[in-house]
Design goal:
Blueprint lengths: L12 E5 L2 E16 L6 E12 L9 H11 L6 E6 L7 E5 L2 E7 L4 E2 L20 E6 L6 H21 L6 E2 L3 E6 L16 H15 L9
Parallel strand pairs: 3-4, 8-10
Antiparallel strand pairs: 1-2, 2-3, 2-10, 5-6, 6-8, 7-9
Helix pairs in contact: 2-3
Length: 222
């Protein structure tokens, strides 16, 4: 496995658009990514990532177009992916271990259980809320596509563990989002589960970042 010292991770820059903060990462070239973001989701090569604060009660029907507008204002070029959250992204927590790095914004004003009672419709009024636990993660070596997908599950498991230990009544929020990026070249690591070479440290950094983020008293913007 290539050592992490040979890989230069992009750093997040904090910017402001229309009075609201956002985090922007610009990759050194195109990186392989898996994303559940409103814009640029799926598997593919990405050059940039945005995690942007929006108002509580955000109700634009076109979040992908909104993110594209922000990328245009920032003059970001090429394919990218973007996330939205009602959390002030300046409360972002970064954790790193063994060449793995995760940047997480955490807010649980509307926690839900993933397997809710089918008769309970209270979650439906919350589905429009922007994602409140967003994770942007960087891996130091190429991963197979199946390993990247597996790592998304690893992130979800680690997040749920942190929420459970903190006494949060839920496994997440309705629209949590995750982005994982790795170099596009090299022999791919085949596994991404929580006991794999990269999955284990990723689970730990996600757990630490969410745990620390939950300590913020009022994470929402303004």
């Amino acid at each position: 496995m290539t050592t992490s010292e040979t890989v230069r991770f992009p750093g997040a820059s904090t910017r402001t658009l229309r009075g609201r903060p956002l985090l922007a990462w610009e990759c050194p070239g195109e990186w392989l990514a898996v994303s559940s973001g409103s814009y640029g989701g799926g598997l593919g090569l990405r050059r940039w990532v945005l995690n942007a604060t929006v108002p509580s009660g955000y109700d634009r029907p076109d979040p992908a177009e909104h993110i594209a507008e922000m990328a245009g204002e920032l003059e970001l070029e090429g394919p990218g992916t973007g996330l939205l959250t009602a959390v002030d992204v300046r409360h972002e927590v970064t954790a790193a271990e063994s060449g793995v790095r995760a940047s997480v914004t955490t807010g649980v004003g509307y926690p839900i259980w993933a397997a809710h009672d089918a008769a309970d419709t209270s979650h439906l009024v919350r589905d429009h809320m922007p994602g409140t636990i967003n994770a942007v993660c960087f891996l130091p070596v190429r991963l197979s596509e199946s390993a990247l997908v597996n790592l998304v599950a690893t992130v979800a498991e680690a997040k749920a563990q942190a929420l459970s230990e903190a006494g949060v009544p839920g496994t997440g929020t309705c629209t949590d989002a995750t982005v994982l990026l790795c170099p596009p070249d090299g022999a791919p690591e085949p596994y991404g589960g929580p006991r794999s070479v990269l999955g284990a440290p990723l689970a730990r950094v996600i757990h630490r970042a969410v745990t620390e983020g939950l300590r913020v008293t009022n994470p929402r913007h303004g």
